[in-house]
Design a protein that fits this description.
The complex is a heterodimer of chains A (311) and B (368). With 311 residues, chain A is α/β, with parallel strands linked by helices. In chain A, 36% of the residues lie in helices and 27% in strands. Chain A has helices at 44-51, 73-79, 95-105, 114-124, 137-149, 167-182, 217-222, 236-245, 267-276, 291-310, and strands at 4-13, 18-28, 33-37, 59-64, 67-68, 80-83, 155-159, 186-191, 202-207, 210-215, 227-232, 249-255, 258-263, 283-286. In chain A, strands 6-7-8-3-9-10 form a six-stranded mixed beta sheet, with helices on both faces. A four-stranded antiparallel beta sheet of chain A has the order 2-1-4-5, with helices on one face. In chain A, strands 12-13-11-14 form a four-stranded antiparallel beta sheet, sandwiched between helices. In chain A, a hairpin with a 2-residue loop joins β12 (249-255) and β13 (258-263). The longest helix of chain A has 20 residues, at 291-310. The radius of gyration of chain A is 23 Å and the shape is globular. Chain A starts with a strand and ends with a helix. Chain B is mainly α. Chain B has two domains: 2-40 and 169-362, no CATH class; 47-146, 3-Layer(aba) Sandwich (abc type-2 transporter like fold). A four-stranded mixed beta sheet of chain B has the order 2-1-3-4, covered by helices on one side. In chain B, α2 (19-39) runs parallel beside α9. The radius of gyration of chain B is 28 Å and the shape is elongated. In chain B, 35% of the residues are buried. Classes of the chains: A alpha/beta (311), B mainly alpha (368). Chains A and B meet through α2 and α3 of A and α1 and α8 of B.
Chain lengths: 311, 368
């Protein structure tokens, strides 16, 4: 049985004027890490709030741990752990007080489930008498995760847990998620960092309330239909203009210090075209797409579809 | 139960770690009592008055001595023309002028009738009225001293007794008022703000996604403020008894009990406000506007309810402070027992139940 199922769920705000989630369906297997990947405002938090029974869907059904999110909301609230996108602990309570409080709220104690949070808690334990408001960003997220985990939830909802956290802490955070997964906890996590996507078992790319694709990170990348190249030359700006004007270009965008370009023709033709245009130090190499490349491609497709619709 | 205790512990931590609020919580009533008790008194002492003695005879002199002897007046003796008196009033130097005509004593003895002119600055009607009354009673006293010898038939002498507050002191009137105001303000504002803060900080989101029951959240929120308010109440009572000489004539237990009832009503009202508002500011604004003004204006503490237009009289019925004010005056000043105030008590209790039920009904179990 799937830990989370979502069937054709739609959610609007402001008396149906703002469409936040548009007919989304997906399911998450038990013990799976499922990532919702998308930019800010894509509808990720709304999905989280519906699944944690904080919001009611306009239409569609969903279950968490086999329980209906509308009918059985009380039961769901006892078996899930939720870490909202915004830091939501008591800033004027100390680390230890926060943890103790949330443990008792869920009728348990720190000792009872200490093994579950141990790996994370040892890192913040030196600061256990510090007020939560005075912790660094990464520490706050670790504490929030501890609080969400303290009652050994069946399903863990993490809404952008690594936003505003440094690279090292982010890596540690994901290592912890892997360990939790090993304990059989289902994790639904959202992020706007594309590089984190590869760490999930499966990812759903979400944009403007629509689910664009659901697959494992590998499949998502393998599904990239065109050849992708990274291109670099002395004048990156002119390179971008010229490549966009090139007839064989499907899509071209900046990506770090390179331009990523997907083409219908081949590498040699592009190089010739650029040399004719007078570019120097041209560097072209074939690359494997990243999740971000996949996302940009889907984004472009949707834009084109929308503009075709407008015509 | 453990859940509940840990909730209460958490609430106390919030209160005690917020130093500014804590100081306000205890500073506010003390400042109020001290201000009303010593600075903002409506008793008149040493009012500047001028006496224009055109008679300069025995009777006028004796009356002036009496005026001087009273603690109410600070008498200046001057010969002033009517226009000079006018000017002195305009400058605000004097509150009242007493003018004796020439031949005052002669008229009194031979015509059995003499008059004194009393001019008061009625731009402040209450002061003018009070001062004039003082003068009239002093003159009346003097007349009474004369009259045993003179034979005036058919005199009706009113024997006035001011019950419960014979000296007409200000403190017995405002202590109950301040008590009502402080308790209501502190409880309503603090509770409403504390729940709304959970919404604002996002912690409500986590609390909702947990097995806690709404009733527990609400009751746990209210308990620290209940305790603090009772401490506050004791401070006010101690101050009023020992600093302002306003004793508690009736049962102290009854007074504390009734006050607890008011506190509970106020807490319930605060919870209600918190379920309606969504930011700390609007909660604070709603409790200030919704509590401060009606409590000051419609409780009968500053203005008598009987003199208000019928509409306001009807509205005053829903102001908890109105009923509490009656109760406190009955217990503190008149020393009455429960049998005299059961009706007011019942109304307050009804309000408490109503507000609690309404806020429980309004408590949102989801984010919308």
């Amino acid at each position: 049985m799937d830990a989370i199922t979502v069937n054709n769920v739609t959610k609007t705000y402001n008396k149906k004027t703002v469409l936040a989630v548009d007919n989304i369906s997906f399911s998450v297997g038990k013990g799976e890490i499922f990532g919702l990947i998308g930019p800010d405002g894509a509808g990720k938090s709304t999905i989280f709030r519906m699944l944690t029974t904080l919001l009611l869907p306009d239409s569609g059904t969903a279950t968490v741990g086999g329980l209906d999110i509308v009918k059985d909301f009380k039961a769901i609230r006892g078996i899930v752990g939720y870490m909202p996108g915004r830091f939501s602990l008591y800033q004027d309570l100390t680390v230890e007080e926060n943890l103790t409080f949330f443990a008792t709220v869920f009728n348990t104690s720190i000792e009872e489930n200490y093994d579950l949070i141990k790996d994370i808690y040892v890192q913040i334990e030196p600061f256990k008498d510090r007020r939560a408001g005075k912790l660094s960003g990464g520490m706050k997220q670790k504490l929030a995760l501890c609080c969400a985990l303290i009652h050994k939830p069946e399903v863990l909802f993490l809404d952008e847990p690594t936003t505003g956290v440094d690279v090292v802490s982010r890596k540690e955070f994901w290592d912890m998620l892997k360990r939790l997964k090993a304990q059989g906890i289902t994790i639904l996590v959202s992020t706007s960092y594309m590089d984190e996507a590869t760490l999930c078992d499966r990812i759903g790319l979400i944009l403007n309330g629509k689910m664009l694709s659901i697959a494992s990170p590998e499949d998502t990348i393998n599904a990239y239909p065109e050849k992708l190249y990274a291109v670099k030359a002395n004048s990156i700006y002119h390179l971008l203009l010229d490549l966009r004007a090139y007839e064989g270009t499907i899509n071209c965008y900046t990506f770090g210090e390179y331009l990523h370009i997907s083409i219908t023709s081949n590498e040699a033709e592009v190089r010739k075209y650029l040399e004719d245009k007078g570019h120097e130090n041209i560097e072209i190499k074939a690359i494997t797409p990243t999740v971000e490349d996949c996302f940009i491609r889907l984004l472009k497709h949707q834009d084109e579809r929308n503009s075709n619709k407008d015509k | 139960m453990k859940q509940f205790l840990s909730f209460i512990k958490k609430e106390f931590a919030h209160v005690f770690r917020d130093r500014k609020t804590l100081i306000m919580l205890f500073g506010f009533p003390i400042v109020q009592i001290v201000l009303f008790g010593f600075a903002l008194t409506n008793e008149l002492k040493n009012a500047n008055i001028v006496v224009v003695d055109n008679a300069k005879d025995l009777a006028s002199q004796q009356i002036i001595d009496k005026l001087q002897g009273s603690k109410f007046f600070n008498v200046q003796k001057e010969i002033m023309t009517p226009s000079a008196i006018d000017a002195a009033f305009k400058e605000g130097k004097i509150k009242l002028a007493v003018v004796f005509p020439v031949n005052f004593n002669t008229d009194l003895l031979h015509l059995n009738k003499a008059s004194i002119q009393v001019i008061a600055d009625a731009s402040d009607p209450n002061t003018a009225q009070t001062l004039t009354n003082y003068v009239i009673s002093i003159v009346g006293d003097y007349q009474a001293q004369l009259s045993p010898t003179s034979q005036v038939p058919y005199t009706i002498q009113p024997e006035v007794r001011m019950l419960y507050n014979p000296d007409l002191k200000g403190a017995p009137n405002f202590v109950p008022g301040v008590m009502a105001m402080v308790l209501l303000l502190v409880c309503v504002m603090m509770t409403s703000v504390s729940i709304v803060r959970e919404k604002e900080m996002g912690t409500m989101e986590i609390l909702l996604v947990s097995p806690v029951k709404p009733l527990m959240v609400i009751v746990a929120k209210a308990i620290p403020y209940l305790v603090l308010s009772i401490v506050n109440l004791c401070v006010i009572l101690l101050l009023s008894v020992y600093a302002l000489d306003v004793p508690v004539k009736g049962s102290l237990i009854l007074l504390l009990g009734e006050s607890t009832l008011l506190i509970i009503t106020a807490l319930a009202l605060g919870l209600l406000i918190s379920t309606i508002t969504s930011s700390q500011q609007s909660a604070m604004f709603a409790s200030m506007l919704g509590m401060m003004l009606p409590t000051m204006l419609l409780s009968g503490y500053l203005f008598p309810i009987e003199n208000m237009p019928v509409v306001l009289q009807v509205i005053s019925n829903i102001v908890p402070a109105r009923w509490y004010y009656v109760i406190v005056k009955a217990i503190m000043l008149k020393g009455l027992g429960f049998s005299f105030i059961w009706k007011e008590t019942l109304i307050l209790a009804g309000m408490a139940v109503f507000f609690t039920a309404l806020s429980l009904r309004n408590f949102k179990i989801r984010l919308e």
